Amino acid sequence: MCAGGIPAIVLGRAQRDLPTDPVLPRRRRSGGGGAVLTGPWLLRAAVRLPTGHVLVDRGPLATARWFGKVHQQWLQALGITGTRLCDGHTVGHWACFAGQGPGEVMIGDRKMVGITQTWRQRAVLLAAGTLVSTPPWHLLCAALRRPHEEADMLTSVTVDAAACLGHGVDAGAWANALRDRLEQALGNAETNVPAG
Description:
Elements: E1 2-3, E2 8-11, E3 26-28, E4 36-38, E5 42-50, H1 54-57, H2 60-77, E6 83-85, E7 105-107, E8 110-119, E9 123-131, H3 137-143, H4 149-157, H5 161-165, H6 171-187, H7 189-192
Parallel strand pairs: 2-3
Antiparallel strand pairs: 1-5, 2-4, 5-9, 6-7, 7-8, 8-9
Helix pairs in contact: 2-6, 3-4
């Protein structure tokens, strides 16, 4: 679990040629999806599952739903109600949080948790980012040379934990709670994998 740090742009594997502002560090991830602006507003989590794990055996869709369900339960335990999991087809976008994919956590039509997966021969990496406060979307748009109006669009299609609760969140405590929830869910995976 990780939150904080210097703002950076993380591009999905299909975005290698996007122009970026050299002021913000740029990284690439092995998973798909759109660009993510990391920083103190984003709490990140990753789980590596070996080939042969019961979750891996169920395939990408069920694995994404499981990962999203764990995040949904974690958020509910911390007072974020009214969440739902995305289901159905992936809707891509140049910005991760404007797209939608199975297992991602929404409140209404606004996204709070983005998920990406990397499937390799020996292991699967699940990664998620949860908006704990409002990102400076204008930085992402400027760095990727997108029209400034798209920052308003990103604000309208996303929601963060602090906005839902009406106060700031302790990202360190939230990260610890998510780690505990993931460890428990992994320990119970054989009996708690949702159908699907």
